[in-house]
Structures are given as structure tokens and as C-alpha cells.
Amino acid sequence: MENRSEEAVSRFMRGCNCAQAVSSVFARDIGVPEEVVLRAATGFGGGVGRTGGPCGAVSGAVLVIGLSFGSTGQDEKEAKDRTYALTREFITRFTLNYGTVSCTELLGCDLSTAEGLDRAREQNLTRTLCPHYVRDAVEILEEILASVTSGRPTTW
Q1: From the centroid of its chain, how far is CA 156?
Q2: How far apart are CA 19 and CA 103, in angstroms?
Q3: For the segment 75-116, what is each residue's pLDDT rounded down to a tens digit?
Q4: Which residue in 130, 136, 128, 131 sits closest to 156, CA to CA?
Q5: In angstroms, how far is CA 106 from the centroid of its own chain?
Q6: Beta carbons within 8 Å of 12's beta carbon, 6+ residues apart
Q7: Cα Rg, the chain, nearest whole Å
Q8: How confident is the model over 15-62, as pLDDT tens digits?
Q9: What SS3 string covers the chain?
Q10: Is a pLDDT exceeding 70 seen at residue 2?
């Protein structure tokens, strides 16, 4: 069987958006039906609905962190704080690799404009660049989740 990061890239290349590809490979681990994760992640692709905002691979990872550790209400400050800390760690590590979490900056074009979307399609950017972001998002997330379950801090 492929490793999780390669499975996420495979799902992306077969039609899942970046957020779906990253989050869906963790569905079993977080105890959420894959269909639910796929639906929840749909709007995060293309930098949140093709607005060029945060990279969908990043958003998919944050979704997994929230489903794993997030709070269910106002009385769960510890869960919220832990989720924020893990999210910051993920974003810090992804940014160290790529300099940003912005879809627009990662692709070098703005998917929220017709010109940017056309350029991304003409240059096949989502097929050449995004698989790297999907793979790395999964690998970073695996390391962070492993550090939480092992009780050891990550070493990066």
C-alpha cells in the first residue's frame, strides 16, 4: 500500500481538490466518515473557493487538526488553545518550506481572476506545483500528529 502522502497526491491527481486530498487520507484516523471529510473540505480548494487565500492543502490539514483536537463549545478553552497551537506549528513548518501559505503566492497567479485561472490552466500549475504542497502538508501533519500521540515534541 502507498504511504499516506502518496495516496493524497494520487487522490488529488484523480480529481479531489487539495483540501480534500489532504484531509480525506486522515478520515479513518480521526473517526469521521470519509464522505463527511470530503464534503467539509470541498470549499477550501483553490485557496478557499478559488479566492487565492490560504492554500487548500494547508486548510485540509487544519481541518484534520480541528477534527482531532478542536473544541465543541465555549467551555473548552484547553482544546481550543491546543488546536490553535498545533495549527500555528503546522503553518510555521509549511511556511518554512515555501515562504507562504497563500495559494496566490504559491502558484504565482491569482485564481480569483479569469486571467489567473486561465494562466494556471495553460501552464498546468495545479498539476505541477500543487502535488508538492499536498505531499508536504500530509507529511508535516503526520509528524505533528505523531508528536501529540507520542507525547514527544516534534523535531524540526
Answers
A1: 19
A2: 12
A3: 889 999 999 999 999 999 999 999 999 999 999 999 999 999
A4: 136
A5: 13
A6: 18, 20, 21, 130, 131, 134
A7: 15
A8: 999 999 999 999 999 999 999 999 999 999 999 999 999 999 999 999
A9: CCCHHHHHHHHHHCCCCHHHHHHHCCHHHHCCCHHHHHHHHHHHHHHHCCCCCECHHHHHHHHHHHHHHCCCCCCCHHHHHHHHHHHHHHHHHHHHHHCCCEHHHHHCCCCCCHHHHHHHHHCCHHHHCHHHHHHHHHHHHHHHHHHHHHCCCCCC
A10: no
| Phi, psi dihedrals of residue 71, rounded to the nearest 5° | -85, 160
Between helices 77-98 and 56-69, what is the axis angle to 10°? 150
* Euclidean distance between CA atoms 98 and 149, whole angstroms: 27
Looking at this protein, which amino acid is placed at residue 149?
T
What residues form DSSP beta bridges with 54? 102
Question: What is the dihedral sign for C-alpha 153, 69, 39, 94?
Answer: negative
